[in-house]
Amino acid sequence: xxxxxxxxxVKAPIEKVWDLWTNxxxxxxxxxxxxxxxxxxxxNDMTTGGKFKTVMAARDKSASFDFSGQYTDVQKxxxxxxxxxxxxxxxxxxxxxxxxxxINETFDPESENPIEMQKTGWQxxxxxxxxxxxxxx
Length: 137
Hints:
The chain is an alpha+beta fold. The chain has 3 helices and 7 strands. The protein is 27% helix and 42% strand. The chain has a 7-stranded antiparallel beta sheet with strand order 1-7-6-5-4-3-2. The longest helix is centred in the last third of the chain and has 21 residues.
């Protein structure tokens, strides 16, 4: 099965982008795909071998799930690789460009939902992150 890639460019210094991506205080403010969802808690050990968990929940309390896994490679502030709990792999790169920090996120799709739906969901979270960073002082 092919991987899926989403990307964006965030107009902010790379150190700020890294901090807001990795700090649990900030993760709960952007790690959801739509306004009817929220991230109720986040734990993050940003080391190779470290684990993370973000609880994503519907605001109406009708559903929730843990998004969790273990880091396989962390190179601050340019690379994050991890395996999700189900074994799927994710690679995220952060590249400084004249336009801002280009974030490229590649992941193995799961088999329950259509590819386009997965891509749209991950892109929505990435877009949420971009707007959060760009409006955070």
